[in-house]
Amino acid sequence: MKDTLTNINNQSFNNFMLRIGMNKGGVLAGVIGARKPHYDIWGNTVNVASRMESTGVMGNIQVVEETQVILREYGFRFVRRGPIFVKGKGELLTFFLKGRDKLATFPNGPSVTLPHQVVDNS
To answer: Residue 102 has what pLDDT?
Structure first.
């Protein structure tokens, strides 16, 4: 998403920026509406991800500690932001996702190299 936005900015002479929140967990999903149906998702996972976005910092991807622990196992690196107050949750320890240092194989899938990833081939 960040790379695509950079390309859009370069081509359109704009300076759009993203603020991203991520979380992991179960969600409930469905199509709602009889006259103008649309797809939607609900649940605690969605609410926390939304709070990660709204309390985040422009240009960063913010996650809670539980998500950081899981993604760290796959070679992603983080900077600790610290505790922030999240409405309905109290203080949560948060981190900014800063990239990926090494290749990792995802369960039931191939290894994935991300843009701007530092790969150690030793």
So the answer is: 64
User: Active-site residue 24, yes or no?
Assistant: no
Angle at 81 between CA 21 and CA 113, to 5 degrees: 55
Number of H helices, E strands in the chain: 3, 6
Q: Distance between CA 43 and CA 41 in Å, rounded?
A: 7
The residue from 87, 89, 100, 102 that is catalytic is 87
pLDDT for residue 3 = 86
Output phi, psi for 73, to 5 deg.
-65, -20
Task: Specify whether the CB–CB gap between 48 and 64 falls below 8 A.
Answer: yes
Whether the predicted model's global pTM rises above the 0.85 cut: no
| 51 is a catalytic site residue | yes
Distance in angstroms (rounded) separating the CA atoms of residues 120 and 122: 6
The pLDDT of residue 1: 85
Query: For position 101, what pLDDT does the model report?
Result: 79
Considering 19, 35, 36, 51, which one is annotated as catalytic? 51
Instruction: Collapse the DSSP code of 50 into the 3-class scheme (helix H, G, I; strand E, B; otherwise coil) and give the result.
Output: helix
